[in-house]
Amino acid sequence: MAIEPKPLQAAEPRGAGDPGVVTEPAPPANAAFEDYPLTRQEYISAMVHFYRGEMYRSQIWRTRLDTTTNWAVVTTAAVISFTFGDPNHPHVLLLLSNLIVTVFLFHEARRFRYFDVYRSRVRMLEENFYLPMLTRQLVSPDREWGKCVAEDLDRPSFKTSLFEAIGFRLSRNFVWMYFILMIAWLMKLFIHPTQAASMAEIYARMAVGPIPPWTILLAVTAFAGGIAAAVVAAARYGISEDEIRGLERDRQRWKV
Questions:
Q1: Largest CA distance in the chain
Q2: Residue 156 φ/ψ, nearest 5 degrees
Q3: Dihedral sign from CA coordinates of 189, 192, 195, 197
Q4: In this structure, what is the dihedral angle of CA atoms 15, 18, 20, 26, given to the nearest 10 degrees?
């Protein structure tokens, strides 16, 4: 007598029929992504990957800042070495190198503004996502931080102005390069081609071709005064504060 095979039955979902187990209904086939609920595990996983991505981008721009500073340092050292290498080399090279360093300063300020965009997002995540998790007090210091970061992703904006970026980089790095170039220029006038015997002789050596000494001295004084005024203004308005200060806590900087 032949035994007829039994028809296969669909397997019941896990936990179906078990007492005390509640099964969630499967979403319809045409459901959109937004129709699925976001679980806690999915949220934390997404935020971790987002943090790593923003940290990577901020590190890339931070490395570019260091590259620009290195260019300025190498240029300053090369000009000083070349100028003092021969008494006949003109002292005006030291003055012109200030213009090159200024170009590097503006270039680095522009890079700093881009770096600050991603650094601000990283700090916002650290202060409002990781800090509550580490302290086991699941209350973010800024309740609207998620909306703020989301709007910034939709419409990115610089968190610092060009003037603030210039003041920050100037007070941290470039002011010392300007100071060294100024000292080197005075030393060049004093020792080359021979050691000066008086201040009048140093003043006379400031002439560059048909340009009289008083014009050079006035231009140098105005340039040095502008640098000093920018450093004082940066310190007075708090622009020279370190980036770890956490400027992203100020909502006015999130221009969205």
A1: 129
A2: -60, 150
A3: negative
A4: 40
Query: pLDDT by residue (tens digit) across 101-150?
Result: 999 999 999 999 999 889 888 888 888 888 888 888 878 878 888 888 88
Q: Using CA atoms, how far apart are residues 101 and 217, in angstroms rounded to an integer? A: 19
Q: Does the pTM exceed 0.85?
A: no
Q: Residue 110 is encoded by which pair of tokens? A: 């522009």
Two tokens at 12? Answer: 């019941």
184: CB partners within 8 A, 6+ apart:
80, 83, 84, 94
What is the Cα 132 distance to its own chain's centre?
25
Amino acid, single-letter form, for residue 62? R
Report the 10 Å Cβ neighbour count for 112.
25
Angle in degrees, CA 165, 169, 170, rounded to 5: 110
Find the length of the chain.
256
